[in-house]
């Protein structure tokens, strides 16, 4: 499947300690385990012994299966089967491992060795403060969530009094241009009563969106009345199942005055306004060719669906 070519965010990097942690990505339950001080590896049981979840305590650098007590070393080799103490387990009894890379405060599962991570260029900007918000477990397909993130027309209704105003619902003629990883939508503007936590009055805000993978996008916000202020917000979605997902936001902000809790509370308010709408959409999977009506204001949605179709994405969509 083409989805294997893209890295999947699965866990906050700080959440993986000595004990394995269970995560879910693309219908499969997977176990993450620490290998050494820094590197992390992901392991999943082979057919034997009956796919138990491995999440639980580590024993002196080894992982113990909670079902039959099989033990595995840091390389995934089975080193002990208590029911057969004299048996030397062959390689087929071990764990298969896949790449797990840390970036943007998250651990990314790489189903293929060269699976690229989505860009977040603001990561290298020392002038911006970074923190993560989430995760959120959402009963919606990953493409539905990304499409909502790219949509400006809902601001005056879903986020009224915050990111939008019914009296200023009209959108200008923004531009959409394809890129190697998706597309860029620029020239977007919105009138917002409260565009970020520090804003004290309504302002026009310039928006720029970039799709960086099928389940990732980056938003740049430049409020007109906060000279020099800038938000870079990365959306990173892990498709757990066809119709459920886990969502993180990577915030890179000019705001060094607010506390982490205050910034997270603002973003939490915005996303929990979106969440019930996302979970109520039918069909839950995003239709790529027909079944939903669009207008010229939806050109980002049209571009995103076209990108998914051209890329060959089938998970979480209806062809």
Polypeptide structure, described:
- The protein has 319 residues and is an alpha+beta fold.
- It has two domains: 2-110, Rieske Iron-sulfur Protein; 121-318, Alpha-Beta Complex (Naphthalene 1,2-dioxygenase Alpha Subunit, Chain A, domain 1).
- Helices cover 14% and strands 36% of the residues.
- The protein contains four helices and 19 strands.
- The strands form four sheets. It has a seven-stranded antiparallel beta sheet with strand order 11-17-16-15-14-13-12, with helices on one face. Strands 1-10-9-4-3-2 form a six-stranded antiparallel beta sheet, with no helix packed on it. Strands 5-6-7-8 form a four-stranded antiparallel beta sheet, with no helix packed on it.
- β15 and β16 form a beta hairpin.
- The radius of gyration is 22 Å and the shape is globular.
- The two termini are 15 Å apart.
- Mean pLDDT is 89; it is low at 44-49.
User: What string gives the helices and strands in order?
Assistant: EEEEEEEEEEEHHEEEEEEHEHE
CATH class identity of the largest domain: Alpha Beta
The total count of helices amounts to: 4
Biggest beta sheet summary? 7 strands, antiparallel
Helix content bin: 10-25%
- Structural class of the secondary structure composition? alpha+beta
The CA-CA distance between the termini, in Å, is 15 Å
Name of the CATH architecture of the largest domain:
Alpha-Beta Complex
Q: Which strand-content bin applies to the residues? A: 35-45%
State the low-pLDDT regions, or none. 44-49
Instruction: Describe the strand arrangement of the main beta sheet, using strand numbers.
Output: 11-17-16-15-14-13-12
């Amino acid at each position: 499947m083409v989805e294997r070519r893209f890295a999947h965010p699965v866990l906050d990097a700080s959440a993986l300690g000595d004990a394995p942690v269970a995560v879910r990505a693309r219908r499969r339950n997977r176990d993450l385990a620490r290998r050494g001080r820094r590197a992390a590896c992901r392991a999943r049981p082979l057919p034997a012994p009956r796919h138990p979840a491995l999440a639980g305590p580590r024993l002196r650098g080894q992982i113990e299966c909670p079902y039959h007590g099989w033990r595995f070393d840091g390389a995934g080799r089975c080193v002990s089967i208590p029911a057969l103490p004299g048996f030397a387990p062959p390689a087929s009894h071990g764990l298969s491992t896949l790449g797990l890379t840390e970036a943007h405060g998250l651990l990314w599962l790489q189903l293929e060795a060269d699976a690229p991570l989505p860009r977040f260029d603001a990561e290298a900007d020392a002038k911006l403060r970074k923190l993560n918000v989430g995760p959120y477990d959402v009963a919606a397909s990953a493409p539905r969530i990304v499409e909502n993130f790219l949509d400006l027309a809902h601001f005056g209704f879903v986020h009224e009094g915050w990111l939008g105003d019914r009296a200023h619902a009209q959108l200008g003629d923004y531009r959409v241009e394809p890129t190697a990883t998706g597309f860029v939508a620029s020239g977007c503007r919105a009138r917002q009563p409260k565009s970020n936590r520090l804003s004290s009055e309504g302002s026009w805000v310039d928006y720029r969106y970039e799709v960086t993978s099928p389940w990732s996008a980056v938003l740049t916000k430049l409020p007109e009345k906060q000279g020099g202020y800038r938000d870079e917000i990365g959306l990173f979605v892990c498709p757990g199942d066809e119709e459920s997902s886990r969502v993180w936001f990577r915030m890179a902000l000019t705001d060094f005055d607010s506390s982490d809790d205050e910034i997270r509370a603002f973003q939490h308010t915005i996303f929990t306004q979106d969440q019930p709408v996302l979970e109520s959409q039918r069909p839950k999977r995003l239709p790529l060719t027909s079944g939903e009506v669009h207008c010229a204001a939806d050109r980002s949605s049209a571009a995103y669906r076209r990108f998914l179709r051209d890329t060959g994405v089938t998970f979480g969509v209806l062809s």
